[in-house]
Amino acid sequence: RTAMVTGDHVRTAVSVAHQCNILLEGRPVLLMDAAPAGQPADACPVALSVLYPDGSVNASVTRAAVLPQVMMGELECAVTGKGFDALLLPPYEPELLQPMLRRGTVFARMSPDNKRDLMELLGSGLQTAAAPGCPKLGLHVGFCGDGANDCGALKAAHVGVSLCEAEASVAAPMTSRQQSITSMISVVAEGRCALLATYQIFQFIVAYAMAQAFAVNLMYTHGLQLGNYQFLIQVGAQNALHRGV
């Protein structure tokens, strides 16, 4: 899953997301913004509207009608920074937070703190939650950024890649020499290779220890010791066993 987190206007972000194929062409987009001031305390904390492909906006939609469509993939979801802040005000409403976290694709007008909180919500949860019950997805999150306003998100994400050698490179665990998000593909590929190599090394160590312990116990049972040539055969057999594993 790919999402865009930016400080640009939501309409600009949606347009760019369409050009990058992050949002599907021809599918309406649900916009979640902060509710107008003066709303009753029990009213919906965000203002919901639907942006259609022709540019028209329908602001007279209800949460009961559009939120199930978002969860089923019939509507895309875009959230503004003010709408994000409104959703994180306790008491939390999972009915609104879950569609935003699970199906949100464009996050616009996001402040540095908003970006950091989003990474935490997608991952292991908010570290500064003011009240219990705030949902989290428990995903492994990667984030690419190139500015000082991305430092918090780069540190909060599981995999943070800076696309420049300026301020963001100080906070990010990794820095790409190429200013392109395609570097994230290389990071994921190298991470999987490292994980596979770690498993194989662990399998070899376990197989080697088991074979050596069995051989030594067997020889000691008969009052014998392994010679140099026998050690050579043992190592060869252990390598063959590891390749079989």
Could you walk me through the main structural features you see in this protein, from its secondary elements to its overall organization?
The protein has helices at 10-19, 63-71, 81-87, 94-103, 112-122, 151-156, 167-171, 183-221, 228-244, and strands at residues 4-5, 29-34, 46-51, 57-58, 76-80, 104-108, 142-145, 159-162, 174-175. By secondary structure, the chain is α/β, with parallel strands linked by helices. A hairpin with a 5-residue loop joins strand 3 and strand 4 (57-58). Helix 2 (63-71) packs parallel to helix 4. The mean pLDDT is 87.
Query: How are helices and strands ordered from N to C?
Result: EHEEEHEHHEHEHEHEHH
Rounded mean pLDDT is 87
- C-alpha end-to-end distance: 33 Å
Strand content: 5-15%
Structural class: alpha/beta
What is Rg? 26 Å
Give the overall silhouette. elongated
Sheet with the most strands, sense and barrel status: 6 strands, mixed
What would the keywords be for this entry?
single chain; about 240 residues; alpha/beta; 9 strands
Topology:
Blueprint lengths: L3 E2 L4 H10 L9 E6 L11 E6 L5 E2 L4 H9 L4 E5 H7 L6 H10 E5 L3 H11 L19 E4 L5 H6 L2 E4 L4 H5 L2 E2 L7 H39 L6 H17 L1
Parallel strand pairs: 1-6, 2-5, 5-6, 7-8, 8-9
Antiparallel strand pairs: 2-3, 3-4
TL;DR of this structure?
By secondary structure, the protein is an alpha/beta fold. The protein has 9 helices and 9 strands. Strand 7 (142-145), helix 6 (151-156) and strand 8 (159-162) form a beta-alpha-beta unit.
